[in-house]
Design brief:
Elements lengths: L24 H18 L3 H13 L3 H13 L7 H13 L3 H13 L7 H13 L3 H13 L7 H14 L2 H13 L7 H13 L3 H13 L7 H13 L3 H14 L15 H11 L2 E11 L2 E12 L6 E9 L2 E10 L5 H14 L4 E3 L6 E7 L2 E7 L5 E7 L1 H25 L4
Antiparallel strand pairs: 1-2, 2-3, 3-4, 4-8, 5-6, 6-7, 7-8
Length: 425
């Protein structure tokens, strides 16, 4: 199950319903032992709390059995033992303890101490959800979206995510938001998605914060607000969402007015995002392939694309270079005339947008060149005096340097191999 969706509950006690106690002394003693164990568990005295939970379980206290299972699963106060965890979760589940059924289900889902069995996990999550355990309802909904051990059923998933959200699983709120934002088996409602993401994020669900950030960044339902998106991605990143950490850098660059021609940002845009932009804008990939280092030696880490159909004035051709899947350089080749009017036109446009360049040489009986550095990105306008082409490039110098080192290493390795193959000739 994807990260952030299936939550293994370790400190579950505060979420447990309080069962009415039978009048028998044994059950009262079991509850008292459980409460004492819980108090010591919170103080991280795991060894003593384990013993108290074990005694509570022996007295017929289902929550005590579930607690023992958790401590065996996580190795708290006792050596980790998945088989013992399975045993105690099973006892708790048979006693009608929802969290026991849920954690037993997670063991079957992940294959801890048993082979992975989605059908068994489905059965146990269903029982736990029927006992009103919120996280079980959420994870059951997720299973129905993935078709694991059951046919995909988005309608049922929506009902389960809603129940989970209502019961207090804020991951369930986030997942319900995803369904509303994308209109999956429900009328598309971005406002509803925004409300659900907000609710999840307030309760520190990383995916909720990340999805909310995306709405602010794209200006969907709410006004585009990169600063707000950045704050939300930072929160999601701190909560453990790695994709959000990447988006933090993207938002920072945009706030620094980093150049993003046609929504493409060197050092940030991935190869997959690039292809999606090309498709959405109606451009065409005329040619693609690995960068040739020399002769028949290529670098598979560097991929280039020649794109046609870009509505840029005086454009002759456009090339986009990626290093290990990240946009490294944009290279526009522009038609130039003898009076260098194209160079001067783009120089004025770039100066108005990014200010005075770091260096500037006008194309008068010599090569013309202007260089800007904006947010770590180098923008170069270059017009050789004797050609009819002006070059405009956007480069991430860090990626460009890494690609050059990669070229060198691959070339040396291939050269050594060829030399070795000739030894026996």
């Amino acid at each position: 199950m994807s990260k952030g969706v299936l939550l293994l509950i370790t400190a579950f006690f505060s979420l447990m319903p309080i069962f009415s106690l039978a009048s028998t002394n044994k059950k009262e003693v079991g509850e008292e032992l459980f409460q004492r164990g819980y108090s010591l568990f919170l103080k991280e005295d795991f060894k003593t709390s384990f013993n108290l939970f074990l005694e509570a379980c022996k007295k017929g206290n289902g929550r005590g059995c579930a607690a023992v299972g958790i401590m065996y699963e996580d190795g708290l106060g006792v050596s980790r033992d998945y088989k013992q965890a399975l045993n105690f979760f099973s006892k708790a589940c048979k006693m009608g303890v929802a969290v026991g059924c849920y954690n037993l289900g997670t063991m079957y889902y992940h294959g801890k101490g048993v082979p992975i069995d989605y059908r068994k996990a489905l059965e146990l999550f269903t029982k736990s959800c029927d006992l009103e355990y919120a996280d079980a309802c959420n994870d059951l909904g997720f299973i129905y979206t993935q078709g694991q051990g059951v046919n995909i059923n988005y309608t049922k998933a929506i009902a389960l995510f809603k129940k989970a959200c209502d019961l207090g699983s804020f991951s369930g709120c986030n997942n319900l938001g995803v369904m509303y934002e994308n209109g999956i088996s429900v009328h598309k409602d971005v406002k509803k998605a925004w409300e659900l993401y907000s609710k999840a994020c307030e309760k520190n669900v990383a995916l909720g914060c990340a999805n909310l950030a995306s709405l602010y960044y794209r200006g969907i339902y709410v006004e585009k607000n990169v600063e707000r998106a950045l704050d939300l991605w930072k929160k999601a990143c701190k909560l453990g969402n790695q994709e959000a950490c990447t988006q933090v850098e993207k938002a920072k660059r945009e706030m620094q007015k980093v150049p993003s021609p046609f929504g493409l940002t060197v050092g940030v845009t991935s190869e997959e995002e690039f292809k999606e932009i090309v498709k959405n804008k109606g451009w065409k990939i005329a040619k693609s392939g690995y960068r040739v280092i020399k002769n028949d030696i290529v670098n598979p880490n560097v991929t280039g694309y020649k794109i046609v159909g870009i509505p840029l004035e005086k454009l002759k051709s456009a090339y986009f270079w990626f290093f290990k899947g990240k946009l490294m350089k944009i290279d526009y080749r522009l038609r130039e005339s003898m009076d260098k009017s194209t160079f001067y036109m783009y120089y004025d446009l770039l100066k108005n947008k990014y200010g005075n360049p770091l260096s500037y040489t006008p194309p008068k009986l010599k090569d013309g060149r202007a260089l800007w550095k904006v947010g770590g990105i180098e923008i170069e306008l270059y017009s050789p005096w004797v050609t009819t082409i002006t070059y405009l490039s956007y480069t991430d110098p860090n990626l460009y340097s890494q690609a050059a080192e990669s070229d060198k290493a691959i070339y040396e390795e291939q050269t050594r191999r060829k030399a070795k193959s000739l030894e026996g000739m």
